[in-house]
């Protein structure tokens, strides 16, 4: 069987300081990509537009998206190639962060370990996608219309929306946490809450409202919903001085998340685990606040779009279009084993 050729695409329009380390890990990996595209211009272009640009310029049937702050494990591309080679029906596969986050600080450790735990416990068939470390058949991506760069002009849930759209088309997607990478992102309390509420929670709820469907993928699963409910019950009980309600809420929170809190204890120690529990409470509060806010955003969008509903083509069925035609592929590596040097290519 002829080995499937792979192109890696890395969005890098915000001058990421970790880009060199990301590229070094990609090139050092076993079965490294046959082509590596770094989308580095224009400055500030969103990741959705960058990934679309890379996919259009890719010369291979499999496109692997890697964020510039991710260090792929040595066997990540071997596992990606094997996944597509052994399953002709597979449209996309994505992985997980490992449990050894490199960024310092309690918030970074908590946030990156949370992502690791959610993906580890959701392994198997999926209805969503993660482009931090995810691969897709190029023809499937192009046929679906690509990432919605018009709606998501900055990092948000553009990959989740793509995954839902692919699933609606009957595409097979798999979450394989053995395809792993180390996340280098540094989180602060402010950046975590802003991301959880404004860039993920509200857009995700608004997306589900637009589609008129439910989704239990990843951290929208039943366990996470019950956990958020226990969180709310505990807070209401404490504020209203209802000890029984507070006790039930706290007990439910600890019980439902015991495996995650055990992971925090193992990786961060007692103090880090206690801080992690507190951060988890704040994370779920942001998720709870996102529900009414997301519904409000959806309602406002419907009011604004109603007059143009019949004349505007939906971005969900439109072909890939660039929001800025100056997007540039700043670094293209030659195929593995060739003797060419890196080159630049302007769109």
Topology record:
Layout: E1 6-11, H1 19-28, E2 35-41, H2 47-57, E3 62-66, E4 70-72, H3 76-86, E5 90-97, H4 106-120, E6 124-126, E7 133-137, H5 138-144, H6 158-168, E8 172-183, H7 189-211, H8 222-239, H9 243-256, H10 258-305, E9 328-333, E10 343-346
Parallel strand pairs: 1-2, 1-3, 5-8
Antiparallel strand pairs: 2-9, 3-7, 4-8, 5-7, 6-8, 9-10
Helix pairs in contact: 4-10, 7-10, 8-9, 8-10
Portion of residues in helices? 40-55%
Helix tally equals 10
Count of individual beta strands:
10
- Calculate Rg over CA atoms: 21 Å
The assigned CATH architecture of the largest domain is Alpha-Beta Complex
What structural class is derived from the secondary structure elements?
alpha/beta
CATH homology superfamily name of the largest domain: Spore Coat Polysaccharide Biosynthesis Protein SpsA, Chain A
State which percent range the strand residues make up: 15-25%
By CATH, the topology of the largest domain is: Spore Coat Polysaccharide Biosynthesis Protein SpsA, Chain A
The end-to-end distance, rounded to whole angstroms, is 34 Å
């Amino acid at each position: 069987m002829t080995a499937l050729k792979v192109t890696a695409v890395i969005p890098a329009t915000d001058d990421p300081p970790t880009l060199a380390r990301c590229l070094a890990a990609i090139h050092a990996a076993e079965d490294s990509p046959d082509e590596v595209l770094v989308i580095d211009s224009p400055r500030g272009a969103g990741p959705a537009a960058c990934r679309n640009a890379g996919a259009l310029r890719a010369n291979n049937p499999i496109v692997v998206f890697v964020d510039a702050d991710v260090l792929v494990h040595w066997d990540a591309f071997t596992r990606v190639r094997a996944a597509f080679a052994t399953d002709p029906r597979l449209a996309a596969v994505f992985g997980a962060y490992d449990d050894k986050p490199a960024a310092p600080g309690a918030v970074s450790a908590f946030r990156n370990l949370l992502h690791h735990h959610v993906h580890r416990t959701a392994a198997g068939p999926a209805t969503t996608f993660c482009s931090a470390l995810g691969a897709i058949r190029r023809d499937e991506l192009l046929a679906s219309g690509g990432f919605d760069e018009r709606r998501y002009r900055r990092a948000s849930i553009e990959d989740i929306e793509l995954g839902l759209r692919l699933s609606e088309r009957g595409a097979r997607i798999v979450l394989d946490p053995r395809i792993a990478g180390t996340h280098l992102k540094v989180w602060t309390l402010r950046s975590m809450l802003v991301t959880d509420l404004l860039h993920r929670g509200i857009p995700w709820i608004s997306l589900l409202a637009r589609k008129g469907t439910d989704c239990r993928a990843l951290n929208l699963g039943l366990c996470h919903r019950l956990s958020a409910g226990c969180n709310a019950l505990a807070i209401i009980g404490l504020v209203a001085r209802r000890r029984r309600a507070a006790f039930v809420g706290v007990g439910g929170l600890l019980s439902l998340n015991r495996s995650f809190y055990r992971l925090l204890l193992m990786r961060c120690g007692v103090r880090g685990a206690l801080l992690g529990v507190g951060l988890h409470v704040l994370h779920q509060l942001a998720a709870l606040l996102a529900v009414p806010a997301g519904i409000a955003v959806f309602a406002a969008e419907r009011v604004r779009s109603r007059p143009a509903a019949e004349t505007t083509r939906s971005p969900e069925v439109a072909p890939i279009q660039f929001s800025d035609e100056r997007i540039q592929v700043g670094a293209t590596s030659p195929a593995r084993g060739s003797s060419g040097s890196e080159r630049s290519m302007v769109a």
